[in-house]
Every structure is written in C-alpha cells, then in structure tokens.
Amino acid sequence: xxxTSLVLGGRAANREATIHSRIDATQxxxxxxxxxxxxxxxxxxxPAATQLLKIARIxxxxxxxxxxxxxxxxxxxxxxxxPARLYISVANTEHLEQLRLFLTQAPYDAWLTLxxxxxCSQATN
Length: 125
Known about the structure:
Elements: E1 2-8, H1 12-22, E2 29-34, E3 53-58, H2 68-79, E4 85-90, H3 96-104, E5 112-114, E6 118-119
Protein name: GTPase
Organism: Herminiimonas contaminans
C-alpha cells in the first residue's frame, strides 16, 4: 500500500515547499503536482538523478472533473513503480470529497492508503 497525502491550499510554491520538507530520501516517493509552479519550486532543488523520486505535473483544473482521465493515467503510471509514499498537490479543492472518493474506490482502494490532508493555506510565500 502506498501512503498518500493530499496537499491543499495556498499557492503552488507553498504546497511544493511543504512536500519538499517532508520527503524522506530513503523512501520511494512519487509526487503529482497540479499545474505549473508560480515561480521557483523547492522541488527544483532536488537531485535530478535520484532513483527514489518521481514527479509528474498535470494540467491545472479540477482533478475530479476536467482532469479525471489525466489523473487516472498519471496515477496508474506512478503506481506501477509501487512507491512507498505519494503526495498529490491539489490547487482546486472544489470537489475534494469526490477526489477522495475516486482515490478510495477500486482499483485504488487496493493500492492507496489515504492519510490526513496537509493544509498549506496558512503558509506564506
């Protein structure tokens, strides 16, 4: 099972800095980022050749509505590598409950364990 956290709120730079601060260099980690960074990303400072980290960016928009197919394809590709940890940075939280439901239904219920959300709405940058 892949421990999965939804990273919510604030600007993209805040969410990415929060994820960066939580990465365990000894653990296979995957990150799905919604949208493009709004400036320099803390994730840009990570070593490019690391074998334990995979980062995917998907187009901005509601991951449940407009990005469902893209999210499904990206998630399936990432889960082939069986990461121990997955962070999903969510810019639009309008349909957050539907996204959670999507991640807890088959087939993802057999692969993912959702942890508590990480809220970056109070972070400043």
